[in-house]
Amino acid sequence: MKEYPMTFEEFIKRFGTEEDCRAYLFSLRWANNFSCPKCSHNEYWTVNQILYTCKKCRHQTSVIAGTIFQDTHKTIRQWFIAIWWITTQKYGASAQGLQQVLGLGSYKTLWAWLHKIRVAMVNPHRVKLSGKVEVDETYIGGEENEGKRGRGTENKALVAVAVEINGKKPGRLRLSIIDDASKISLHKFISENVEVGSTIVSDDWSGYLGLEKIGYTREIYVQNKAKTDDEMLPHVHLIISLLKRWLLGTHQGAVSKKHLQSYLDEYVFRFNRRTASKRGLLFYRLVENAMKTPPKTFDEITEKPYVL
Fold first, then answer.
1. Which domain holds residue 197?
2. What is the CATH number for 153?
């Protein structure tokens, strides 16, 4: 049974102590019973209320080993507060905002926390898009060079966009950085994010040729002077406009090229859950994913900002 607080008041009561938080993680990691990560034995004894020693092989582990929380010098309760706050922010979370919420002095630490949490926003078992799906690409960063898909775009990151058509409104979304707008790159993006049998709505770019051979139906909007891009692919171009506005507004355009995918993942997480009424469920899902996300050190995620 999924257990999660529904309100901030319930959150405070449910996770009042560090022991409460660790017990919650234990229930997520070992829902049925403890299982030694080395030998799978289910009997253990505790050491300092943090480490678990397997009674069979004597291997020691903790509830946060192998997760984004591993090696943290802060409390799990502080992590929980951070995750709750992030899931309740409508337009996005910044390290400065999180710093004010937690009252911690290190901006660097909270910046790293945000990047670790963004990685956990991607469910490895998420369901692919289906039905009728609009697909296009856009360049993020540098000055705009409309109409170019390769030349004059060296300082940009090419992002593929796929969005379900749900009546007159956009449905679920996927965003991914791709190497180029070639057939290989676009077909790979579509295969990884859209169910076979779906209808791909795109322009007449050659990179979309041959989708029928890999199981998709294709609907082509031929570019002409009578219609703008927004009119031909309205859902995709709405997403592109909102995404660029979000990057500039929430993150002031200072996004590392190396970390752009994690910002795209955050945007997808928020957009796909924009109508969710249960904030507690979002908290639960994010903590659940965090327990399945391997740890990353600060050095692994650090790079100078790339100004968009």
1. 132-255
2. 3.30.420.10
Amino acid, res. 109: T
Please answer whether residues 120 and 293 qualify as being in contact, where contact means their C-beta atoms are separated by less than 8 angstroms.
yes
**Which H or E run contains 83?**
helix 76-88
For residue 145, what pLDDT is reported?
Answer: 47
pLDDT along the chain (308 residues), means of 10: 82 95 94 92 91 96 94 94 90 85 87 90 90 95 54 72 92 96 97 98 95 96 62 90 86 69 91 83 91 83 51
Q: Is residue 186 part of a domain?
A: yes
Task: Check if the beta carbon of residue 174 is closer than 8 Å to that of residue 162.
Answer: yes
Helix and strand numbers (H, E) in the chain are 11, 8
| CA proximity to 138, closest of 267, 49, 225 | 267
* Residue 17 maps to a domain: no
Q: Which residue has the tokens 């169910």?
A: 195
SS3 272: helix
The pLDDT assigned to 161 comes to 98
Q: How far is Cα of residue 90 from the mean position of the Cα atoms in its chain?
A: 15
Q: What is the residue whose two structure tokens read 């970390």?
A: 259
Within 13 Å of residue 91, how many CA atoms lie on the same side as its CB? Answer: 11
Query: pTM of this prediction?
Result: 0.82
In a domain, 295, yes or no: no
Token reading at 172: 């679920």
* Phi, psi torsion values for 134, nearest 5 degrees: -80, 140
